[in-house]
Specification:
alpha/beta; Spore Coat Polysaccharide Biosynthesis Protein SpsA, Chain A; 5-stranded mixed β-barrel; two-stranded antiparallel ribbon; 9 helices; 13 strands; about 25% strand; binds uridine 5'-triphosphate
Length: about 270
């Protein structure tokens, strides 16, 4: 059973300055609901019961958001606005937090989750990558993990080759429909990417991955990269990629952010 999830939200958000100086990008609104709320909903829909969010200075809005607001609840009830008060309901899941003192990279953020994870397998969701498939992908990845008992990571074809230098990129061999056995994984390849298959921010990982995250090993951008841990993992065991069929939106990019707003505005049934 995969019932734990880690959501790293302690990055500096440099691509989204100046607003990210005061508003965490993980809290950017998408039709009135923060991006992180969609991510927590996705995790819960996939069966996750315990969530750890990695935060940092300036990200207290995240803790406030998922907390109760009794005064506001009472105020709305007193005003007879119980329909509005319903919007204060938060996902039915236990959320805890750990602080990352310095944004040294995704690998380092994940390392802080080790006491939370213990010996259990877990999902890792990057809160700036939003999928609009009602958790279908994450559920499939969890099912695949149960079969293979090895890391399963989300991958997707990136048509524009010049964009690949912004992603983790894999090389591998398809083994079944939608599943690839990965042979190489590189973070932000400067030139000659090993393929056009990029890593998207969904992972299902065994606790053994922590042994491969080294605090003193800096990778691309001078950061401690999860990708490097996965490459090292490959020296000892298999690693699988699952093709993500859902549209995905990287909300750090303005065009994706706006496209996602449009998706929720225009979908059947309107905003929910
Ligand atoms: P990103 O690289 O997309 O986010 O990391 P960033 O570093 O905040 O943004 P830029 O690149 O400077 O614009 C993916 C996720 O991992 C978290 C981020 O908060 C983001 O949600 N992260 C990244 C951490 O929690 N800690 C880190 O040290 C780095």
């Amino acid at each position: 059973m995969v019932v734990k999830a880690v959501i790293p939200a302690a990055g500096y958000g440099t691509r989204n300055l100046p607003v990210s100086k005061a508003v965490p990008k993980e809290m950017f609104p998408i039709c009135g609901k923060p991006a992180l709320h969609y991510i927590v909903d996705e995790a819960v829909a996939a069966g996750i019961r315990e969530i750890l969010i990695v935060v940092s200075r300036g990200k207290n809005a995240i803790l406030d958001y998922f907390d109760r607001a009794p005064e506001l609840e009472q105020h709305l009830q007193a005003q007879g606005k119980s329909d509005v008060a319903e919007q204060l309901a938060m996902p039915d899941v236990h959320i805890q937090y750990v602080r990352q003192p310095e944004a040294l990279g995704l690998g380092m953020a994940l390392k802080l989750a080790q006491p939370f994870v213990g010996q259990d397998p877990f999902a890792l969701l990057l809160p700036d990558d939003l999928l609009t498939d009602n958790a279908v992908t994450l559920k499939r990845m969890i099912r695949a993990f149960k079969v293979y008992r090895r890391p399963v990571i989300g991958i997707k074809t990136v048509e524009d080759e010049t964009l690949l230098r912004n992603y983790g990129v894999i090389r591998g061999t398809p083994i079944t429909t939608g599943m690839t056995r990965i042979e190489e994984i590189v973070e932000k390849p400067v030139d000659k990417p090993p393929s056009n298959m990029a890593v998207i921010g969904r992972y299902v990982l065994p606790a053994e991955i922590f042994a491969f995250i080294h605090k003193d090993k800096r990778g691309a951008g001078g950061e401690i990269q999860l990708t490097d841990a996965l490459q090292e993992w490959l020296e000892t065991a298999e690693l699988y990629g699952m093709n993500i069929k859902s549209p995905s939106y990287d909300i750090s990019k303005m065009e994706d952010y706006l496209a996602l707003q449009n998706y929720y505005l225009n979908r059947e049934g309107g905003i929910r």
